[in-house]
Amino acid sequence: MKLYYVYILKCSDELLYTGITNNIGRRFCEHQDGLNKTCFTYKRRPVELIFYQEFNDVNQAIFFEKKIKNWSGKKKLSLANGDYDMLQILSECRNATHSKYKNNEG
Predict the structure, then answer these.
(1) CA-to-CA distance for 75 and 31, rounded, in angstroms?
(2) What CATH code is carried by the domain that includes residue 24?
(3) Which of 5, 33, 74, 103 is most buried by a 10 A CB count?
């Protein structure tokens, strides 16, 4: 069975990078070694792997990666830290803000 991983790296400048791979160890080394000079993480090394989630369906992995790429840094850190209460609060805040704006426009 082939596995896929969605991962979050914390860069030396505190920015977060989200990616997908089928080999987490190899991909982490590629980021850390600066294999690709055009990669977001190249000038932000060293990087730290702060989260990964395993999938056996590539489509689920791609969906999850796209979803969390749009999240705020705080929300990604909450996921990485296993702080699901904060994750819920941050999600509710964002949803409340969106609905507030919709009501004001109406």
Answers:
(1) 23
(2) 3.40.1440.10
(3) 5
Is the domain of 2 the same as that of 34? yes
Residue with tokens 């990604």: 76
Domain span holding position 26: 1-70
**Residues 2-26, buried b or exposed e (16+ Cβ, 10 A)?**
eebbbbbbbbeeeebbbbbbeebee
Tokens of 77: 């850190």
pLDDT digits (tens, 9 = 90+) for 6-25: 999 999 999 999 999 999 99
15: its two tokens:
């920015």
pTM of the entire structure? 0.85
Query: For the chain, what is the domain count?
Result: 2
Q: 3-state secondary structure string, the chain?
A: CCCEEEEEEECCCCCEEEEEECCHHHHHHHHHHCCCCCCCCHHHCCCEEEEEEEECCHHHHHHHHHHHHCCCHHHHHHHHCCCHHHHHHHHHHHHHHHHHHHHHHC
